[in-house]
From TrEMBL:
Keywords: Oxidoreductase, Peroxidase
One Gene Ontology biological process: cellular response to oxidative stress
Superkingdom classification of source: Bacteria
Listed name of the protein: Glutathione peroxidase
């Protein structure tokens, strides 16, 4: 069975990251965009990350220009995330979340939890909650705020699966 640990992605700062490094953690995967009306969600995502990381939460941000609302350079993306929102959670290099060039992790996520548009990502800030076992628990709409995810995240953190350390 496929899990998050089966994938890799390029970090925003360069270099491949084995997503197996997050095995045993509860992971919130988000496709982000730094020029979107929902961009202020970075603030809430960072708050969740800071408050719950010691319990095992990791937020992973995947910038995407699939909706034409992301900066062209990784330097600009990093600057907006850091300067405006103090993002300290892992951010990855820009990827496609829809279409023929969709990153493999998003192909898998969309197959595991289809949304209202079937397999497609509807918009920036679609969120996927992944359990400690590396399997997708739930998919959340772009307009679902980070604060609205807290109960689901805390439930996932409370579950101790076989992958938990």
């Amino acid at each position: 069975m496929t899990t998050l640990s089966d994938f890799q992605a390029e970090a925003l700062t360069g270099g491949e990251v084995d997503l197996g490094a997050f095995e045993g953690k509860v992971v919130l995967v988000v496709n982000t965009a730094s020029r979107c009306g929902l961009t202020p969600q970075f603030e809430g995502l960072e708050q969740l990350h800071r408050e719950l990381q010691d319990e095992g939460l990791v937020v992973l941000g995947f910038p995407s220009d699939s909706f034409k609302q992301e900066h062209d350079s990784v330097e600009q993306i990093a600057e907006v995330c850091q300067r405006n929102y103090g993002v300290s959670f892992p951010m990855f290099a820009p990827i496609a979340v829809n279409g023929p060039d969709t990153h493999p992790v998003f192909q898998w996520l969309k197959e595991e939890k289809k949304g209202k548009l079937g397999g497609a990502i509807k918009w920036n800030f679609t969120k996927f909650l992944i359990g400690r076992d590396g399997r997708v628990i739930e998919r959340f709409a772009p307009t679902t705020t980070p604060d609205e995810l807290r109960d689901d995240i805390e439930r996932a953190l409370a579950e101790r699966g076989s992958a938990a350390a």
